[in-house]
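User: hey, got a sec? need Histone acetyltransferase type B catalytic subunit folded
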Amino acid sequence: MPAVTVPAGGSGIAKGDLDKYICDSNEAVEFKLVRNPEDLENDGCTFKPEMTHQVYGDEERIFGYTGLNIKLYYSACRLTPYIGLAYKDKINPAKCDGVEADQVLKPLSEYYPPGYFTNIDDFSAALIKDASFRPFGELQNQHKVYLGGSERTFEVYSHDISPPGFREFHERMQTFILFFIDAASYIDTDDEKWRFFVMYEKYNVNGSPRYAAVGFTTVYEYYAYPNNIRPRISQMLVLPPFQQGGLGTQMLQTIYNYYIAHKSVMDITVEDPSENFTRLRDYLDCKSCMKLPSYQAEKLMVGFTEEMAKEAQSKLRINKKQARRVYEILRLHVTKRSDKESYRNYRLHVKNRLNVQFKKEDNDMAKLKKILKPEEFTATMTMTSKDQRLESLEHQYQELEDHYSHILERLAGSDLS
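Assistant: Yep! Here you go:
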């Protein structure tokens, strides 16, 4: 979004008075998943975006309005959108040297597929179509969760892009990533290697089933020679009204179960995981690896072995890098931190792995030194001092141990008995 040019004053509105027309787009935007017309007046259904910079610019500000309210409502099942705009006051260009208000709806229209409503009455009337909506694909998992004060039923379905109507449904569904997944981008649904896992809440209205969208995961199935695939998890989102109920864990476990059952799958990878997803993945992988013979306490204390990597890959489709990470978490569990020698050995073991990046830097600089003139080598040298390396290693290690401890806390209890 271009920067706002504020007039220097003299005639019209004074410069300071324009500040009231600057809005925080994160506060201005509100979402609702609407199951019935009554929800339109229910503020309890409202939730806020985590970010808006992907639509309204890095500063996440909108100029030209007071009391700005951007309404992004979706029918709960079909995800048919309504985009509405309300405000108390809008700046008058004639009174401030021609300065105009920012476009609000135009940036949204660039991301939303055609067919969204701008009239709230038409949107309300169309909610009845949700009654006939049924999930796409095949049911993979059904589970009950105590959420929001009651037991509720959730189901996960899996399919490619081919089911009739799903492409349009996905176009509407993926608009959420703009506001809840940083650095998000729409995927190319013309590529047949995409697989989708969509979670719904199954509930009843007058004895008839309804299926409200809860979240989704996209997985790209890379080809692996000669006749295998290597799935990579790309996007995963559980919508805010359904968070904090363990549904993300259920969805990821469903994905694991689906691919573990396919012999053609080599291992499962993840594209640029967020911190929250990393915690979720580490928790599930540790929970599963704890049951493997190669990950038992007596073997963990020996060190990471090829046996661990192979068993995690063959039985759980966990790749070698992640298998090593799981090993470090579980070895921390069996390491007595009160035993100075044992704890020291553990720290050194992890730091030796972290130190690989510095050894690579050393090798790269040694190669450069051979091919560059002395003055050129000096100009390009970026090697850190020994003290800086030690400080960096300690910082990286401490962050890892804090993360590992968080995972172990979640696993505590019966899972670790």
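Quick note: The first helix runs from residue 25 to 28. Let me know if you need anything else on Histone acetyltransferase type B catalytic subunit.
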